[in-house]
Amino acid sequence: MRVTQTMLANSSLSHINQGYNRLATIQDQLATGKKITRASQDPVVAMKGMRYRTQVTEVEQFKRNLGEAYNWMDTADAALDQGTETLRRIREIATQAANDSYNAGERANMAKEVQQLREHLQSLGNTKNSNKYIFNGTDTTKPPVIDINSMEYGVDKLFATGTDFNAIEVVYDGKIFKQVGIEGNKQIFQDVSQTSPVYGEADFDDKAVQLIVQEGGRVTFSEPNRAYNSNDPTSEKAVKKDVRSQDVIVADKGAVSINTQTVEIELLKGVTIPVSINPSNVFNNALFGDILRLEQALKDPTVNGKDLTGYIDNMFTHIDSFVAERAELGARVNRVQMMENRLMEQEVTANRIMSDNEDADLEQVIIDLTIQESVHRAALAVGARIVQPSLMDFLR
Prior knowledge:
396 residues, alpha+beta, two-stranded antiparallel ribbon, 11 strands, cell projection, Flagellar hook-associated protein 3 FlgL, cilium, Flagellin
């Protein structure tokens, strides 16, 4: 086959152009640090890269979710801590007031402090994090302590025309009561936590924890007698006592929100953690009702130290509820911390796999660049020598 000068020139230019392309590819790898800059260069690497990058993006989002979870739970823990301290102060006041050495005026001054502490608890119940109310379940746009003024209607509300008994709660001695029956001018209320016996059953009067409110304000509290002895004819099955009408709180059921739906945040793929607490266990009508009962008792000059002793136990019960919620919240914080450690390990692994798939080996790229530069210079030199002769050189 006859090889012409044109064929030599074209072949030389083609090889030089290919060298330029290889140089461009190597320079792209050196500039970007990536093996490829277009999917067409290596479709397998491109497809794997999309999958690995999605995994890295998920881990980064979960890390942001972790920050949100920590903010929510830390805010809730701080509010519960302050609430616990507030209740302890109220308990101290109740303990102090139970001493009969204090006169009515001094106890009335104590009632003013209790009122301020109650209002502080109400503000804690409306704690916000990132403009969200954290103690109102999933309804984070509305404050849980909705209507402070509807926390005490007075027992006369029970006999007012048009009263909706499904919309009110009666609070006494740390318990919430609901209406179960009417007997003449008497309203019968039973502890909501007691499901048996049911009103109308034969043993209801003996075994039910109930409040009997008569029109005019007389209130009787009845509960089963734990010391009842069937062999003792004088022993009574139920213990009954008269209660001051001011010691019974009639509150709107909606005064404190009862939304108990939990707020959950996804921290790992398919794994969600509840970051909210059950607000009905801490901020409820029973809590504010018992504090209002203490306020009114401190203002009542007929109440003696022995009567005030019962409020101390009420405060202990509410403190225990706050501590229990903090304990559960702390357990969840510990779990979130373990999930954070796992997430950090996943992040390292995901970034390493993505780097192995996409990142170029810079040492090898530099070596390849040096070699290609040498080859390119040699190709240019050879091409110059081949293409250099002109027509005058052939005529000589």
